Amino acid sequence: MNNVLIIEDEKDLADLLAFNLEKEGFATTCIHDGKLGLDQANADLPDLILLDLMLPGLLGTDVCKVLRKTPRTAHIPVIMITAKGDEIDRVVGFEVGADDYIVKPFSMREVTLRVKAVMRRFEHEEQLPPKLLCIGDIAIDTQRHTVKSSGADIDLTSTEFKLLLYLVENKECVQSRDQLLQNVWSYNHTGDSRTVDTHVTRLRGKLGAPGDIIKTIRGFGYMIEE
């Protein structure tokens, strides 16, 4: 049974999230403080964390930063939950390593669908055969989940890694934003295309000059072109 750690200071909302996820077969633990939630993550190593942005003790962004910098917890997928919906807040969430982002108010069905989608994505990544993919000055080690650009190690979030890997594996093929949402984020419905655009922008920036091989196809999506 997969375990979801819910770090949310609104107790009623945390209980509602736990109730709905448990109906779907997940085990849950609820913590209402950022620092205590971080301690719980280190102790239990949950399969996924639902993380509120505004928390007492330690902000959700700071919790996510520490999770990503700690080898013991760096692999745990994080879905950030927040009442804020501005683009800048979405960007900050992705910058600190969140794998997905849900804005309040939301439906419980949306939450369970996104939790399942992220779980499927990470389970699939664990089953990928070891191999080294190279394109231009970019080298991807799918076993270690590491990327080098022009010989330098690049620190990517798990979602950025999955996005780059998918584009490389489908190079020279144009991928629409909806296709990327379905195949990288595992959304089986049309999602927010700004999620894709934000990740591509961040990915290009981290890769530096070699990232120019990721081409924008105006009005449609993206592709990698050598």
Which class of secondary structure composition applies to the elements?
A: alpha/beta
Count the strands? 12
CATH architectural designation of the largest domain: 3-Layer(aba) Sandwich
Evaluate the radius of gyration. Answer: 17 Å
Would you tell me the overall average pLDDT? 87
- The parts where pLDDT drops under 50 for at least 5 residues are none
CATH class of the largest domain, anyone?
Alpha Beta
Characterize the biggest β-sheet.
5 strands, parallel
Q: What is the overall silhouette?
A: globular
Topology order in helix (H) and strand (E) letters: EHEHEHEHEHEEEEHEHHEE
CATH superfamily of the largest domain: Response regulator
Q: How is the CATH topology of the largest domain named?
A: Rossmann fold
* Helix content class: 40-55%
Please give the domain count. 2
State the distance separating the first and last CA atoms. 43 Å
